[in-house]
Amino acid sequence: MKIGILGAGQLARMIALAGYPLGLDFIFLDPSAEACANKLGEHLHGDYNDPRLLAELAERADVVTYEFENVPAEVAEFLAAHTRVYPPAQALAIAQDRLVEKNFLNTLAIPTPAYAAIDTFEQLVQAMSTIGYPAVLKSRTQGYDGKGQSILKSADNLPAAWKLLEGVPAIVEVFVPFNREVSIIAARNVSGDIVFYPLSENTHRNGILRIAESKADDPMQQQAEVYISRLMTALDYVGVLALELFAVDNGLIANEFAPRVHNSGHWTIEGSETSQFENHLRAILDLPLGSTATVTKTAMVNFIGGLPTTKQVLTIPGAHLHLYDKVPRKGRKVAHATVRAENTEQLAIAIEKLGILAEKTHDS
Ligand code: AMP
Hints:
The chain is α+β, with helices and mostly antiparallel strands.
């Protein structure tokens, strides 16, 4: 059985690593000759919308999936006309536009921050009279890891924030004074069975995920499961889906969802009975989904822009290192480490040690 993946970055690489024990082969389509999953399968080198390569991918892969959501939705639709493609193209199209995404979440009664669509500076000024300060201005499309975003603290910030956007369609939303950021990851197979992972508690800096920690028995688990299963059912979703949420005093507010395996679920490789990567494959192949039970307390720390030595990481008790085989560059995720521990204190110590290594090599 051959799995086609649009994109050959670290997510595709970890999907392939989870697929080998299941006897699966992989074929990737990626514009970069150096993409880090290339060594793990065949590589079709070229643009995502190259019709010749897409036809070849559809011809050779039994099922096609993707590792990132900025693949043009028309590409997923083209492939879907020729082969099985999961998750559905509609999920991709919705997640690519923050305005469409927030409208969709609201139709499902999944709360979001108050927001307004912005196409002109006048609209921004007008919207701020109802949204209020502080707020966040974001581009509607092509935004991830905090890119294309500005925090608005007062009317003085509006001209510079608007200039940064360079006229692209935008959305402005209330800045949520959250207590915690969490995400829920779930998998749904073709038959409609759903499994949920325990919440991940996430720490970001400059919009980029730094640390994710498994939270078995979190009091907000049930609410998060209700929201993500609503989303999955409405989209007739197949695969792994991640929903990022702000935890506030009286519940959860949705930020965005990602129709793919997610950085905040990397700890599931060592921390769950079945990783998100394996469950993604099981879901798109309509196999029984694996248990998502945590095997122990687990956390993950990202290495961004630089790397400690392998020995430095593995000296930390309970640490596992995942190198992505990428050349370090500013702002680039190049590896992560997972730590497992028997209790919260040991986990906190291990996270701190990994965090120090990550800080020494981070570039931002
Ligand atoms: P995003 O690209 O929308 O995931 O935003 C990246 C990060 O910016 C989030 O993980 C939050 O830390 C922060 N952020 C984005 N939107 C908001 C908001 N409305 N209120 C508070 N923080 C936000």
